[in-house]
Amino acid sequence: MRKFNIRKVLDGLTAGSSSTSQQQQQQQPTGNREPEIQETLQSEHFQLCKTVRHGFPYQPSALAFDPVQKILAVGTQTGALRLFGRPGVECYCQHDSGAAVIQLQFLINEGALVSALADDTLHLWNLRQKRPAILHSLKFCRERVTFCHLPFQSKWLYVGTERGNIHIVNVESFTLSGYVIMWNKAIELSSKSHPGPVVHISDNPMDEGKLLIGFESGTVVLWDLKSKKADYRYTYDEAIHSVAWHHEGKQFICSHSDGTLTIWNVRSPTKPVQTITPHGKQLKDGKKPEPCKPILKVEFKTTRSGEPFIILSGGLSYDTVGRRPCLTVMHGKSTAVLEMDYSIVDFLTLCETPYPNDFQEPYAVVVLLEKDLVLIDLAQNGYPIFENPYPLSIHESPVTCCEYFADCPVDLIPALYSVGARQKRQGYSKKEWPINGGNWGLGAQSYPEIIITGHADGSVKFWDASAITLQVLYKLKTSKVFEKSKNKDDRPNTDIVDEDPYAIQIISWCPESRMLCIAGVSAHVIIYRFSKQEVITEVIPMLEVRLLYEINDVESPEGEQPPPLPTPVGGSNPQPVPPQSHPSTSSSSSDGLRDNVPCLKVKNSPLKQSPGYQTELVIQLVWVGGEPPQQITSLAINSSYGLVVFGNCNGIAMVDYLQKAVLLNLGTIELYGSNDPYRREPRSPRKSRQPSGAGLCDITEGTVVPEDRCKSPTSDVKDNSFSRSRSSSVTSIDKESREAISALHFCETFTRKADLSPSPCLWVGTTLGTVLVIALNLPPGGEQRLLQPVIVSPSGTILRLKGAILRMAFLDTTGCLVPPAHEPWREHNVPEEKDEKEKLKKRRPVSVSPSSSQEISENQYAVICSEKQAKVISLPTQNCAYKQNITETSFVLRGDIVALSNSICLACFCANGHIMTFSLPSLRPLLDVYYLPLTNMRIARTFCFTNNGQALYLVSPTEIQRLTYSQETCENLQEMLGELFTPVETPEAPNRGFFKGLFGGGAQSLDREELFGESSSGKASRSLAQHIPGPGGIEGVKGAASGVVGELARARLALDERGQKLGDLEERTAAMLSSADSFSKHAHEMMLKYKDKKWYQF
C-alpha cells in the first residue's frame, strides 16, 4: 500500500488547492462560512486491507483434518485454502499461482500443512501464526504430482507421480531425498504395460518399513523400503480409485471403477479374500453382479466393541438415473445409503486416535460436497447430521443483492435472533460440533453489524456480522404472498423473467423503525413491518400501479394527466386509490394486447404470518398495452413519513403505505414539467446524449455496455441472474436511452432557493445526471395522518451532474450528517387501547439534526455522488460549494456517505477496481487504492460500504469478502483474528504390552533418517525439483517436531507474534528456553521417548 501514500498526499494537496480556488472564484454569499467546518479526517486515517472471507469455499477440491488440533482444511480449484476450527475460528489463504489444490496433508499436531497443487508444486504452510504463511515450496519440473502421503510423526513425505514413480521429500528442509521408487522396479515383470499414475501411497500401520503403492491400472505393490524391493504384488483387472488399511496391517481394501470393493490379505497376493459390490444386483446362478459406477473412495475403520465400518462414495448402479449422490456406510450386516444434495468432492472419517495402528473408533464422517459441508454422526442410530455452525449457506439460493449496516441499534440483533430461532430445523445430532480447534480472537469492535442478502428465490437473510464473524439471524421468504403455479402450463405469460420471478433486486431498510422494503425482478415492491406477534392476514393489501413511458404531447403541462392512465398523476392534489384485494380483471386492451395485469398473482386466501417481518403492502407494476413493466431501478422508504417511493426507466411512483394510496405516478419527463432540458420525441428508438450509458440499468439488466465500461458484466451471463428475456416490442436502444430513476432520498431540507426553513421532501436522481426535488406536505401525526391526504408537488428545483446519480445525503451547518427522519420501532400487533394514549402524543418525528433546532438562517449541504463526479451544494442558495471529478475513463459502481472516526466521508468503488474516499464537505481525496483487477457483474451488484470503515462484496457465488478502509481496524485486525494452533498434548501411543514391545510383536518402527538421508541415499537430481523459500520469514516455524523442540517452537512463536524480532541464534535460543521453562519436566520425558525424532531447525 505504501506506493499510494505519496500519491494520496499529492492528490490531497492539489485537490485542496483546486477546491479553495473554486470557492474564491464562485464568491458565494455562503462561501465565507464554508472554511469554518473543521475536517478531522486525513489520509493517515485510511488503509485498505481484506479482513475475513465468509461462506462456502467456491469449487472445493481437497479436504484434510488434524485429529489432535481438531482443525479442518479445504482446498479449492482456484488455489484457495480455507481452515475451520471451532465456530467463529476461520481463516482464508491463497496460493499465488491460483492453481487447483489436489491434496492437503496436515503435519498432525505440529501446526503445519502441506498442500499439493495441480501445477506440480508442494507448499508447507505454517499455521502457528494468525495469518498462515508458506514456509517452503517445491516445484517438480519433470514429473506431475498425483498423490502424497505423510505418515503420522514422520518428516518424510512420499510423493507419487503420473509416471508411476515415488519421490521422498524432507518436510523440514523441503528438499528431495535421493531415495526414489521407480515404477518399473516396483512392478518388474508382473505387468507388460505401464501401471499408470500412482493413486495411493500408505505405510503398513504395523510396519513403517512396508509401503503400499496403488497404481491406477489395478496393480498394488507392497514395497519393502529397507531391501528396496517389492514383497508382494496384487493385480486386479479393474482400475483402482482408492485403498485403505485395516489397523492391524494384515488386510487392506481397494475401491474400483466397476463399483466393486476388493479385500486382500497382505500375504495372499493371488486373489482378493472378498469382493463386494455394495450397490450391485446379485444375480442368480452365481454370476457376477452387474457393473456399477466407480467407487471413488473407501475408508476402513475399526472399533473395539463391534464390527468395522466400511464407508464409501459412489458405486451406485447405472440404472439409478436421477438418483442423488450417495455416501454408503456399511457396518456389520447393515448398509445405510445417505443421499446428498450435491455431488461428493471428498470425505473423511473422524476417529478418536491419530495412530493408524490402533482401533480407530470412528465417530463422524465429514463430507465435502460441491456446494455444502456435511458432518454425519456415526454414533447415533439413523446417522443424523450435525447442525453446521459455520455460515456456509450464503448461496442456498444465489445472492442477487446485499446491504451492510454497521453501528445498528443494539436491540436489533437480539430481536432478529429471537424470531429467527423459531425457524431452526429439527432432527440434528444432539452432540456438540466436533471440529472445535483453535481459539477466538479478542473482539476489539463492540458495535453491532448486520448484513442483509437478497436471493434469487425471493428470500432475504439477515446476518449478524459483528466482530468479523458471521451468523445467520433470520430468513424471510417474500414469495409467500404470491400464488405458486402448479406446473409450467399453468403459468401466466405475464412473467418478464423465465426463471426466479421472485428474485430480490433492491433492499431498502430503516434499522431504527425496522421497516423493510424490497423490490423484486417482476416489477413488484413489498413493504414489511417487524412484529414479535403472530398474525393472520385475511386479505393481503395490494396496489397496482401503471407506470407509462409515453410522450403524446411534448408541451403537456405537468399537472395534466394523459388519458390512458387510470391512476391520477401527481400534481398538487392527488386522490387516494382504494387498495385492491386481488388483481384487476381487465387483462387485455381492445386490440388484444396484454394490459393492466401484474406479473405475479397475490394470494387471495388468508395468510398466516409468523413473528418477524410481516407483509404490510404489496405494490405491483402492470403491463401497459402489450409492454411488460420495466424493472425497478431505485427504491426508498421513510418510516416517519409513512411513504415508499420507487422508479424505473419509465418514471416514478410514490405510495402512502399507511393510507394504502398512490400519491404520485409520473413519467420521468413529466417530473421536469416545463424545465425539461432535453429535446424528446415520441416513442421511437433514438440515440440521446448520454454521459456514460444508463448506469444502473447496465448493472441490473445485463444490457450491452459501451467500450469504456467494465467488460465482464455481459460475459458473466450464467452468474447474472438478471439476464432477462422480454417479449417487449420496445428495442433495447429505446430502453437504454430512456431516463431512469437511479437514486431516491427522503430528507428534511430546503426545497427551493427562497425557503427560510427546512421541510420534508424527496430528492430524485436520474441516469442522465439530473437531481429533482419533490416537496411533501404531510398532515399532522396521530389520527389526522390516516385521514388527511399527503400532498406531493414538484418544487421546480433542478440540479445537474455528469453521469447517473448514485447517492445523496445531507450535512448540517457543522458538517455533521443529517439522517432522514425515522420513527422508533413499536409493536403494532397489540390491542388498540394500549396504543391510544401513545397515538395522541405521537407527532411526526423530525430528523435529529442540529440545523432544525438552531436559527432558521442556518444552511445545509447536499452531497450528491454520480457515476463520474461528486458535488456538495450549499442550501438553500443551491450554489456548488465543492466539486470533485472522481473518474474520467471509468465510472463509479457504488458510492456511500459513511461515518468514520467521529467524522464522515464519501467512499467510492470504481469499475476500474479503484477504491477511493473523499472528505466532506470539501471532497478532498483521502484514499485511492487499486484494489480489484477484475470487476464482474456479481461484484458490481453486491459491493457496499458502511460506517466505521467496513465494506464487503460477493467475491464468488458462495463467499462474502469483507474489507476495511480504516487504519485503526487494520491495526487491530491481528488481535481480532482467531488462533488456529493451540498447544495440545499428543495422545499416548497405543500400549502393546511389555513382552510385545520387548520381542518385537507390536508395530515395527523404521529409521527413516538412515534410509532417506543424504548419507545413505545420496543427493536427488537437481533438475527434478526446484526449492523455493516461502515468505514466512522469521514469523514462521521452520520445522515442527514432537517433544522438547515442539515446545520450544511454541515458545518462540509466542514471542514472534508479540512482534519481537529476535536477532542472532544465542539470543533467540535463550528467549525460547526461558519461555519454555514451564514445560521442562514434560519436555525431558518426551525428549527421552522421541530422541531420534528431533528435527527442529533454526
TrEMBL record:
Residues 1033-1093 form the V-SNARE coiled-coil homology domain. Keywords: Cell membrane, Coiled coil, Cytoplasm, Exocytosis, Membrane, Phosphoprotein, Protein transport, Repeat, Transport, WD repeat. One of its GO terms (molecular function) is GTPase activator activity. Residues 706-721, 823-839 have a biased composition (Basic and acidic residues). WD repeats lie at residues 233-274. GO terms for cellular component: plasma membrane; SNARE complex. This is Syntaxin-binding protein 5.
